[in-house]
Design a protein that fits this description.
mainly beta; five-stranded parallel beta sheet; 1 helix; elongated
């Protein structure tokens, strides 16, 4: 370990195991000969061998340990023999120069983060023998363009292919029952995906910010779609929710701007702009941007982030059925010029109107008792604010950067011992 000037090593054929961290931080090591007497490569055995360019693993080796070749930045090729049954957690993480790898059909498990951040990896073949692929196994493989999962895999774990920026297509077999949280998050080039009718749940943020995703088919087998599952899929034009779906998480389709949204589930309702719960009392997710919007008078609460980032929104009508405005509910609505808060509302959440740069005036009714932190922060056009005596709490920086407030508004805030403008 830490032999900084060691350039090559030939391991004796009497050795049966390369121990944990044996050659870790051997910065100058360029080549290594592993004899076929070795059955196990230990945890971190060649970790941080920055000059190591290639390695041939003999067919005597059965397991590659956790972090075994992690941070081998110069490693361009590796041959994994068909004797290996498991690839450990983070085994090849951040092998920046690794372009291709073939996993033999002896391997049954690929560990968490095993090939994470292999930025040059363009091709990967996963055989039918593999039954489990760990969390973040291929995350940040920025050059990976397509992937076919074998029908031996039953779950796509959390973050497995997240941040694979070049990934254009993926084949999900009908053995998969669950797509984990953030499984394809930030796969900016992914254009289409067909989810097989074996899948029952789509995790939180599963396709978060898949900006090129134009179409997705959700089968009748799916019962649950997680929070922010398709958030930021701005190219998504149409989607159909089957009648099997009973749960859709908050802001599942936020920022999608879907033109054709069909909901066949009896557990939800929708109009052109929003998806609601069954009795239409809560906004589950915005599905399309708008210029003007009248919130239905059945709605009792505006959830966290409900209209956040709706840059085209100029005016919104809030009915007197609403009692609470959630955190960052209208945050970053840059065109919002006017809003009327009814006297049914008792609380305005944290960052509720933050960075509404066009908002000029707001009247807070005497039903409100609490204004959250940074509620109106960054509202640089805000000139007047009316705050009633009912307000007992104003959060930190609630009016921060509201530099154009008139003198009466400033005096009123001073009366309430608020000085952070």
């Amino acid at each position: 370990m830490n032999c900084k000037y060691l350039q090559s090593i030939t391991i004796s054929n009497f050795v049966t195991k390369i121990g944990d961290h044996a050659f870790e931080l051997c910065d100058s090591l360029q080549s290594v000969t592993i004899p076929n007497s070795v059955t196990n490569i230990g945890d971190g055995a060649f970790r941080w061998c920055e000059s190591l360019q290639s390695v041939t693993i003999p067919n005597s080796v059965k397991s590659i340990g956790n972090h075994a070749f992690e941070l081998c930045y110069s490693l361009q090729s590796v041959t994994i023999p068909n004797s290996v049954t498991s690839i450990g957690d983070h085994a090849f993480e951040q092998c920046d120069s690794l372009q291709s790898v073939t996993i033999p059909n002896s391997v049954t498990s690929i560990g968490d983060g095993a090939f994470c951040s292999c930025k040059s990896l363009q091709n990967i073949t996963i055989p039918n023998s593999v039954t489990s692929i760990g969390d973040n196994a291929f995350c940040s493989c920025e050059s990976l363009q397509n992937i076919t999962l074998p029908n031996s895999v039953t779950k796509i774990e959390d973050g497995t292919f997240s941040r694979c920026k070049s990934l254009q297509s993926v084949t999900i077999p009908n053995s998969v029952t669950n797509i984990g949280d953030g499984a394809f998050r930030w796969c900016y080039s992914l254009q289409s995906v067909t989810i097989p009718n074996s899948v029952t749940s789509i995790g939180d943020g599963a396709f978060n910010l898949c900006e090129s995703l134009q179409s997705v088919t959700i089968p009748n087998s799916v019962t649950s779609i997680g929070d922010k599952a398709f958030i930021g899929c701005k190219s998504l034009q149409s989607i159909t929710i089957p009648n099997s779906v009973r749960n859709i998480g908050n802001n599942a389709f936020h920022g999608c701007n879907i033109c054709f949204f069909i909901c066949n589930s009896t557990y939800f309702q929708n109009d052109d702009v929003c998806l609601f719960n069954k009795d239409k009392t809560a906004i589950v997710s915005r599905i399309k941007d708008c210029v003007n919007y009248i919130i239905p008078n059945s709605v009792t609460s505006i959830g966290d982030g409900a209209f956040c980032g709706c840059e085209s929104l100029q005016s919104v009508s809030i009915p007197n059925s609403v009692t609470s405005i959630g955190d960052y509910a209208f945050c970053l609505c840059k065109s919002l010029q006017s809003v009327t808060i009814p006297n049914s509302v008792t609380s305005i959440g944290n960052e509720a109107f933050r960075w509404c740069k066009s908002l000029q005036s707001v009247t807070i009714p005497n039903s409100v008792t609490n204004i959250g932190y940074e509620a109106f922060s960054g509202c640089e056009s805000l000139q007047s604010i009316t705050i009633p005596n009912s307000v007992t709490s104003i959060g930190d920086y609630a009016f921060n950067e509201c530099t154009h407030l008139d003198e009466p508004s400033r005096l009123r805030l001073k009366e309430l011992n608020y000085t952070q403008i």
